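Backbone-to-sequence.
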């Protein structure tokens, strides 16, 4: 009788351990997803801010290339923007400006592709495309 009870007790402890490890695993996955969501949210915020800044150059169109023209190389620290988020995470931002072309309704301007990368592993977190036309 004692051997049967011992085996049942060991079996119950094993089942309890499996359940406890599964709960812990779910908790860790939840935290990882929450941190990744915060990183993506920060990257989107940075990208949107840069897009708005580029659009503001509609009133100062001639200086658009000087401000953003050379920021298109992720691997060169002088050819990219480095921005820290509110949670102190570093992001790299590149901006690809097109040549001037007809965009819509016979208006000429440039398109900008903004890419935001996480600095740790250079993973692309978000990408925005915007257009700028000269307003006079």
């Amino acid at each position: 009788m004692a051997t049967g009870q011992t085996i049942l007790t060991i079996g119950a402890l094993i089942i309890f351990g499996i359940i406890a490890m599964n709960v812990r695993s779910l908790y860790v996955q939840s935290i990882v997803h929450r941190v990744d969501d915060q990183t993506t949210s920060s990257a989107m915020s940075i990208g949107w801010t840069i897009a708005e800044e580029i659009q503001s150059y509609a009133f100062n169109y001639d200086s658009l290339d000087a401000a953003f023209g050379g920021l298109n190389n992720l691997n060169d620290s002088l050819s990219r923007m480095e921005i820290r988020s509110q949670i102190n995470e570093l992001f790299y931002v590149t901006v690809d400006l097109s040549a001037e072309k007809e965009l819509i309704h016979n208006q000429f301007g440039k398109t900008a592709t903004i890419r935001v990368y996480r600095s740790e592993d250079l993973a692309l977190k978000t990408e925005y495309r915007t257009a700028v036309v000269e307003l006079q």
